[in-house]
Task: structure prediction
Amino acid sequence: MFSNDSYTKQFTDMMSEGFIFIDNTGTIQIYNSKAKEIFGINYEYDYSHGSGKIENGDIVIIGDSYLGKDDGGLTPESLKVIGIKDDRIKNGDAVIAVGTYNDCKHNNCKYVFSDNNNSAEKLELDCIYKGVRIYGCIDFINRRVIIQIESERYVLDYIKCIGHIVILDAVSTKMKFYQTKGYTARDEDINNLLLGKAFRAKGENSEFFDVIGKDIFEIHKGNSTIQEFYNAAIGNDIIYTNEYKEINGRPTICSLFPVNKEGKRVGAVLKIKDISEIKRVIKERDEALQNLFRIERKLIDEENSKKLLPELIGESSEMMHVKNLAVKASKSKSTVLILGESGTGKSLLAKVIHDNSDKKNKPFIAVNCSAIPDSLLESELFGYEEGSFTGARIGGKKGLLETAQGGTVFLDEIAEISPSLQGKLLQVLQDKTFYKVGGNNLIKLNVRIIAATNKNLEEEILKNRFREDLYYRINVFPIWIPPLRDRKQDMYVLVKDLLPAICNRLGCEEKGISGEALRLLSSYNYPGNVRELENILERAVNLTEGKIIFSKNLSIDRKSDLVKTEHHKTELLKEILESAEKEAIKSSVSINRGDKQAAMKELGISKTSFYEKIKKYNIDL
Result:
C-alpha cells in the first residue's frame, strides 16, 4: 500500500515520469511533482491576484483557439454575457473578444473570429477599450495565445486547443484574474468563470493548491482515461503499458497498473509521460542539428570560396562575404552591380566572376566609361555602319557589345555615362537587342553585363544624373567591396601576396617585411585602398637595399590620411543631420494627422523645399 509519508513523496518526486496513486474510492493519495508539472498544478506565477469571482461591469478579454474545447464547453451563446451576439460565430471557431460582463445597455464589445480551417497564421485584435489598450493574438503556427493589457503580457502555450481569459476590475481596470496552465484542475475554465464560479488567488499570499485527498474526477474531469484509472482502482482488471492517452487536453503516454494488498484491490497507479515534452526535446535536437548543418555549410562555403577564388585576397569576414557572393554570382546569369571605393578591386572581382562562370571560355570585355569621351563611347559600345558619321571607317566597325557575344561586358564607372546613352543602354538590358550607329539591322545580344561604380547611385538619381529605371535594371545582384580600412585584418595576407609579385615585376630579389613596418601599414587608413597599398609597397621595394623592408622605408602620407579621416567625420555629421531632418518631417506630419500644410508651417519650410525633402528621403506619406 502506498502512503503519502515524506519518504514516499521524496522518492516519487525524484521520478522523471508523472506518478499518480488513487485508492479504491478514487481519492488521490500520491501526485508527484512531475505530474503536477505536466498538468500545470505546480506552477510559478508571473503575476499575483486575490481570490474572487467575475462581477457585473468587469472587463473580460477572451482568446479561445477552438470554441468548445478546453474552455469548459464555451459556446457562441455563452459569449452573450459580454455583449457578443453574432450568428456567424460557430462552435470550433477561434475567437478573440473584449466586452463588459452583464452590461448590455452600455456594452460596446470588440471581437474577431475565424474558422479553424482558415490558413491564416494568426488571429489578432488590437484596440482601445474603455481607455485601456488591449491586444489579443492567437498564433496558430507556434500554438500560443497572447493577451496584452497595456504593457503586461499574459501568455499561454497550447498543444491542441486552449481557452485563455483575463478579467479587469470594473472600477480600477486593474487585472483581477488571468488564466494559467492547470486551469482544468483548478476548475477555472472560461465557461465556469462566466457562469460566476469563484477563482483562487495566485502568487503572493495565495493558498497552496494541494490535490492530495481530492477526488480524481475533481482534478481531471470527463476523461475516459481517468474513468479507466478509477475502474482499475475499484477492482476492474485493466492494465496497459505505454499507450497514447489524452488527459486535460494534453497528449500523453500512459501506463496503468492496479494495486493489490493481501489479495484485495486497494487502488491503482497511473504513470504519465508528457508527449509535448518529448516533442520539445526532439525540436531542440532538430534545431541543434540544423544549426550544425548551417555551420558546416558556412565552413564549406568559406572553403569553396578560398579554393574557387584565390585571386581575391583576404580572409576577413567582410571579404569572405564578398567571396561567397562572387561564387553565387558566377553561377547566376543576372546582371551584377559591383560597388566600392576606388582601388578596392572592382575590376578584379568582375574578371573573377567571369572566369568562374560558364562563360569563362568566351570574351571578357572591360570598358572604362570614364576614360572614353561620351561622343565616342556610343560608337565603341554599339559599333557603327560605314558612312554613319564623318571619319567613319570604311566597312564600319563592330562594337564592344557585339565583340563580346556569348561572354561578359564589364562597364566600369557606369555612373559617368551620359543620360542619353543611359537610355540606350537600358533598352539593351531590357530587350537584349540593339542597332549599330547609323544602322537599320537589329542585332540580338547574348552577353552578361557586370557594372561597377564608386558613386552612390541613389544620390545620383536624386540629383537627376542617373536614370532610376536603369538603376533597377543593373542593381539585380549587388556586391559591395569594403574599403581596406574596414578590413585591416587582411593586411598580412595582402602584403604576403603583393610583395613577391612586385619584386618579380621589378626584377629584384624577393624581400620580406618587419613587424614594425607591418604595424605601421596597419595603422594607415588608405584613401586609395588596395591600389594605394600596392603603390606604397612598390616604392618601399625600390627604396630598400637589403632583404627586409623596415618602417623607415615606407612612404606614407599621414597628412592625406588625416584629411580623409576629417572628411569621414564630416560625412558622418552630414548623415546624422539628414537623419534628424527626415525624422522631424515624419514626426510633424504624424502629429498634424497627415495635414501637410500644417507640417510645413510647423517646420518653417516652403512647399517646394518640403516636397524635395520628401523625395530625397523617400518618405512614405
